[in-house]
Amino acid sequence: MPPGLIRAVRANDLSQVVAIHQQAFRGFHMTLLGPRFLRGYYRAVLDYPAAIFLAATEGSQMRGFVAGFVNPPRFYAHLRSRKRSLALAAATHLCLRPHLWRRTLSSMRRAQTLADTDDQPYLAELASIGVSPTAQGRGVGKQLTLAFLETARQQRATEVLLTTDAHNNDAVNRFYQNLGFQCVRQFWITPDRLMNEYRIALTGVQSVREGTPHDA
Known about the structure:
The protein is an alpha+beta fold and 216 residues long. It has one domain: Aminopeptidase, CATH 3.40.630.30. The protein contains eight helices and seven strands. Helix 1 crosses helix 3 and helix 3 packs antiparallel against helix 5.
């Protein structure tokens, strides 16, 4: 793939972010809440002062994105302030798919718990990374993750965490392990969904500028 650009996501990129999310996460909970919900969520990320929201582009086309933030408790407090508009955005899909309520309520309780914890200004959370199906296997995810780590370090974070499914998700788990993430715990987000929590210390992590060129 020709060298591309990794840059900050802008407001006029949100439609492409939503489209890539829908393609990359078919059948996942947030996707099933609908494009209006996704747009509202990613708008909240974009508006958060300590966001890390990057796009991999090739020409005018976005090939992938990574979204996250420094100080997760403050982000979840910021997200909580928009819960009414997010609920309205998801309302139609929740009515059409009542089975989504259990996971939605579980996610709301987790966000509430995180919002009520003490500030963690040296911790960053990688919340979402999506790559267009047409760009799979071309190094986009790796370059976005390395760029996220570098940006987090520039924002004085010393550690990055993320969560991903423990079961039926071997390729994704290997991806993060190969980048140096360590699984520090497992937890059930619902009675039938086990999650792995990964963390990586940013000291000694290879800089994007020291590695291969940005590959969109």
